[in-house]
């Protein structure tokens, strides 16, 4: 699997409800419509390790069969719509978006 991770910073407290509504009703459906997408998982981070605050507010994971499938998806109108929606979120809510991508490597727990 080739995965894209989108890390969103937190909106202002007074904008969180509107951010969540727009993210769930508009952005996630657009992301889910991207061709060649195997799965999409979104997480609202609420906890950090120990007493630390979470570094990001929201994380989205988009999984593709391989890098070629990901690259093909980036040429689609659906990808362009999702990217435009990301820009709208950044402008409207004053948040930042950081993206990282890579090949999944699965390890097995040693405590089983």
Automatic annotation (TrEMBL):
Domain of life, per lineage: Bacteria
Transmembrane stretches, start-end: none
GO molecular function, one term: oxidoreductase activity
Segment forming the signal sequence: none
Residue ranges of every copy of the EthD domain listed in the record: 13-81
Pfam families assigned to the protein according to its UniProt record, in alphabetical order: EthD
NCBIfam families on file: EthD family reductase
Name of the featured protein: Uncharacterized protein (TIGR02118 family)
Organism: Actinomycetospora succinea
Species lineage: Bacteria, Bacillati, Actinomycetota, Actinomycetes, Pseudonocardiales
